[in-house]
Amino acid sequence: MPGFTLYSNEIFIEEKIDLAKYLWKKYGKDLAADREIGRLLGLYRNEILESYKLMEMFGVVNECAICATEVPGGGCCGAGIEDWYDEFMLLLNLLLKTKIPTERLGRKDCLFLGPQGCQLFARHHFCVNYLCSQITDVLSPVQLSDLRAQSGKELFLCWKLELILRNRLNN
Ligand code: SF4
Ligand code: SF4
């Protein structure tokens, strides 16, 4: 769609957020109205909700929210992780009606960390996959394997959507 190359690895997160907002304003309606994208967004939303449901059931949401908001540097949600996000991941959040935070909670925290935990809905694969030993030590092998399988479903749809967005917006 646009007449420029999207490659954000070397720009600041604030610029990536602005770029995602620009793309959303300019192409968001058309992207959301696209049958395939709309279908995948619906499936992706459901898998993310399913992931949260499992994490809540296993106590992970609570543990991580306490750790991320009470440990200086946010446990594994430290400053700098926001830089791993690009405009496509951020655009996915906007397409899923999630506001992108622009105010950092604490100097050592990830930009997207809020008082109750992560404020993004569509998250980077590190954020979806990473579980420290504080979590893995208390989950049963079955719970761990259920969680991994669910993360895989979420990330597969994320990958499909990212691929489509990259193709559409880079051509
Ligand atoms: S995965 Fe571990 S380090 Fe990361 S927020 Fe959860 S409890 Fe904290
Ligand atoms: S994006 Fe969310 S889950 Fe990932 S590090 Fe930042 S606050 Fe934590």
Low-confidence stretches: 2-6
Quickly give the structural class: mainly alpha
Span of the ends, CA to CA? 5 Å
Classify the oligomer: single chain
- Gyration radius, rounded: 16 Å
Largest beta sheet, briefly? Answer: 2 strands, antiparallel
Q: Structurally, how many domains make up the residues?
A: 1
Number of helices: 7
What is the helical fraction, as a range of percent? 55-70%
Order of helices and strands: HHHHEEHHH
Strand order of the largest sheet: 1-2
Quote the average pLDDT: 91
Instruction: Tell the overall outline.
Output: globular
How many extended strands?
2
Estimate what percentage of residues fall within beta strands.
under 5%
> Bound compounds, please?
iron/sulfur cluster
What does this structure look like?
- It is a single chain.
- By secondary structure, the chain is an all-alpha fold.
- The protein has one domain.
- The chain has seven helices and two strands.
- The protein has helices spanning 13-33, 35-57, 60-70, 87-95, 125-129, 133-136, 141-170, and strands spanning 113-114, 117-118.
- A two-stranded antiparallel sheet has the order 1-2.
- β1 (113-114) and β2 form a beta hairpin.
- α1 crosses α4 and α2 (35-57) runs antiparallel to α7.
- The longest helix is centred in the last third of the chain and has 30 residues, at 141-170.
- It binds iron/sulfur cluster (2 copies).
- One iron/sulfur cluster (SF4) is lined by residues 77, 81-82, 110, 112-113, 118, 120, 123, 127.
